[in-house]
Amino acid sequence: MRYLLLIALCFTSHIYADEDDKCNIVKKKDISFRDNNSKDILEVSLIGETCRTADLKLRILTLEGSVIYDYKFNYKVGLNSVYGPEDERIDKQLNYLLKNAIGNSSKLPKRERDCDENNNCWGDGYFPGFEIYTRSDIGFKEYEKIQKEGIPTLNHSVGREAWETFVYDKKNKNVISVFFTSV
Predict the structure, then answer these.
(1) Alpha-carbon distance 128 to 79, whole Å?
(2) Which of 13, 52, 66, 82 lies in disulfide reach of 62, CB 3.0 to 4.6 Å?
(3) pLDDT tens digits for 22-78?
(4) CA-to-CA dists, residue 14 to 3, 17, 20, 111, 129, angstroms
(5) 123 and 150 together in one domain
(6) What's the DSSP call for residue 120?
(7) Is residue 174 located within the same domain as residue 107?
(8) What pTM, to 2 d.p., does this model score?
């Protein structure tokens, strides 16, 4: 019986060996974010003790290495699955982020009026076609101006059921949220 237990333990540790692999994946792409001609870098990384419990970081950097934007969240690939750093699904997801995170403000959803005093835009008349919770941290006139300028945007999920769009505010030299939506 002891030998059977020893064999079972050896077999089990081999099955879960990927869970012990450190996760250290970093991918970069040259982009323009501060304006249509700036030279910036979009970096996505998945770093942690395992890929299942790693932190996904999304950063925008200047060529000199200054951080323009930094977002981090825990990346739980699947509660019942164990993935190693070489898993192709992880690679596909990081490549998707690199390809689709940068957009253009001319593609922002149409907005018809200001949100309420708390920046909540719930219901009809704010963003037609969006029947879910929406928010904008800027006023209607500023939103329209940004939309017409056609400047770069950063778009990514924020949590499981929310999506946010950001632009670079050249005047204040910081990143601002222009559109948030959630179910």
Answers:
(1) 36
(2) 66
(3) 888 899 999 999 999 999 999 999 888 887 778 889 999 999 999 999 998 877 643
(4) 17, 5, 10, 55, 51
(5) yes
(6) B
(7) yes
(8) 0.76
